[in-house]
Every structure is written in structure tokens, then in C-alpha cells.
Amino acid sequence: MQGLGADYMTGGDGDRTHSIRMGADMEASRLESRIKEAEAADKTATACELLRLYLDLGGSKSYFQFLFAEQLRILGRSGEAETIFKDLMALLPAKHAWRVALSLGLLYRDRGEFDKAQATYAECGTLRGESTIPWVYLGGFLASKGDIAEAVKVLTRGLDAEGDRDEVYLNLGNCARAMGDYRTAIQHYSKAIGISPDYELARKALMDVQEALEVREVIRGTTMASLESGK
Q1: Which of the 8 DSSP states describes residue 161?
Q2: End-to-end CA distance of the chain
Q3: What are the residues whose beta carbons fall under 8 Å from the beta carbon of 196, sequence distance 6 or more?
């Protein structure tokens, strides 16, 4: 990576100051490009070090502060990440803070602090309730801890939001499947596929519950036949 010196120009103090500022802007731009490349390639440690350099050089864009916290979270440095996430939530407007809340919820979930995770996901819903994303995250979290009935309520709210309703239906289908209500699960998975015909997860889940329902009906039929023959 070239240093700022490569961008310096000789001249008066005013020209030099302007040139230094231009050099710093160019350095920041190069760093931003490398950061995005590393993040896209899942090079978490590399992205983290580039972000640290970027911020040490005075970079202050909230997106890169958030990205730094995300890399720290993924690396397992949750204490540092939590501090940055909280600072950003206090500074950013709701239209941006909700995304930070999602990551903070993931951090708490990964640390096993489930009450904090649930509260943070719920706060995300308050900040961005018009989007399906918070409801999918909160509903999925509730389902994962076994609170299926509450998950269904949350996900049902997501059907009135804008966004990926196919994901909402997928998760509703998963909840119905978990409760053994295969017919309702089939309805939800079918609606997800109706929205996104190439939704492979929904198609596999639909085939699964259809077969499970067939097996259940065969077992019941066999059982009934055995009972009747034993009379």
C-alpha cells in the first residue's frame, strides 16, 4: 500500500496542505476499496486489520465503524464489538440503527444472553417494523428457543410488512412443522414458493412435510387395520 508521501506535491504552504488532504482522501478511498473486497471474500481478520487502520487514520464513516464491529463479533471479540454497536445505536437515526440492533442481537444470542437478544430483536422491530427483516429474526429466535406460539404471532405480524414475505412464510411453515401440523406447514411453504418459485429451502421443506404426512397417514391406516382385525 503506498504511503501518503506518494501524493505530496511541492509548493507553498496552502498548496502543500491541500495536497496532503488530497493524499489522505486517496489513501482512505484505497482502504475503503480493500476493506470491501476483504469483507466480500469473508477474509474477516484481514478486513478487521484494514478497518482498524482506516479508523486510526481518521475515517469516521458510520458504515465502516459498523463493519469493524461486525468483524470483531465474527472473530469472537464480542466485548469490543458490543461497545461499538451500542455507541452507533445511540448516534444513528432509526432508519440505520435497526441494522445495528440486529447485529447486537446476534452477538447476545451467540453469547447465550438470550433475554438481551430477545429484547434487542424486539427493539429492532420497533425501529423498523415496516420491514419483514426484524420479524423474521425475532420469530426465528423465539422458535429456536422453543417458544413456537409466540414465534407464530411475531411472524404473522411480518406478513403485514414490506420485504421478503417468502421468508416469513418459510419460517411460519417451520413453526407448523415443529408442532407436527403438516397440513398448515404445506400451506405456508406453498405460499413461499408462490412468491419465489426458485426458493430451494421452501421446496425441500414442502417435500419433507408432504412425505411426513403420507407416512403418518399410512401408519394410522395400518394401526386402524390392525385394531379392526383384532376385534
Answers
A1: S
A2: 86
A3: 166, 202
